[in-house]
Amino acid sequence: MRAALFLSAALIAAPAYAQNQQIELRGVSAVTSVEVGEAQDVGASAVAGGNAVTAVNIGVDATRTNSQTMAGATDASTEAEVWDAPGVATISAAAVNNGATAQAQGGDLDIRSTQSNSGDAGAAANLRAGYVGYGTASASASGNVGAVSAENSEIRAISAQTSSGAVNAISEADYDAADIGAGAAIASANNVAVAGDTATLLTDTTQRASGAGVDARSDVYVGYANDAASNATANANAVTINNQWGYVNARADQQSSASVQADSYVTLGGDFTGYASAGAYGVGNSFNVSNVGSDTDLDVTQANSGDVSANAAMIGQGGDIAVASAAAYGNAMSAALCAYCDTNMPEMRGAGSQVNDGAVNASARVAAPSARVVGASATAIGNAATFQTTGQAQ
Question: Taking the model in full, what pTM does it have?
């Protein structure tokens, strides 16, 4: 029997009520450029958003409705040249076509949210550095984002996300020398995240992703470094729920026909004294839930027809630890419950359906003439489901 989700047909009127409707028909762009000869620390960021709404509810019951439509393109770009920064040099670019966040503390919250995106979302971060102590370039691009956090509350959330635009995140970091040189890129068509502490979470999520594709690429080039790292993550649809000390009842219906690609590369011209790692993760539909000390009911349906690929490579000279890992999934679902954390011995009841009709490919490569530890892994799986319940030892 599939897990049942108990949400009222009509949201009950609450003391606080707000209705939000946003329609953006044109493009939005943000550009940041920095040129620095010498500095201790350097920071630069660019943020572009089509529609954004935030709701904060403390000590009161509330009802929130949200409707967001984005038809234009969103672009965020950050470029920096830093020749000497012994401290921290960090740059970032973030593009979000539709974004909605809600917070509840000490009160119940009813949410109905609809997000529709047909525009492209692109983020690019480019860092060129001589010497830096700690350097990082990060880019994130999203079609639709919904985030809810709750403490001592009950959340009843019904959300629908549709994205048909291209989503691209590109990070490039080039260091002559760095104590730590890093780069990261995250691209997501649809994303819902719910977090609770001593909260009851009742969620119903529908996600649809199509269009030109979802791509994340991170390139890190270093002459000499102690440590170097690159990470790229791309997903069409994602739902993440984390709760503790409260009941979770989650339903998700995810469908994707968009292609998904994650590429991560680390290239070193000289030696590295610590670790050099490249990681890539790509998934069509992703659902993850974790709960502590309370019952958890799940009903998840995933269907993916887009191709998914993840590629990671680390190429350099001699070093200590050289690692490359790539993982690609058509559909991925995981659920974890810590049952022994509560004397009532809570239960997990879950039902999942996964169908994949897209090609799934992963590749990992390490090329180094010498290293103390070398590791490479490539994982490609059409459908993956994991259910884990940890109970008290008898």
Answer: 0.94
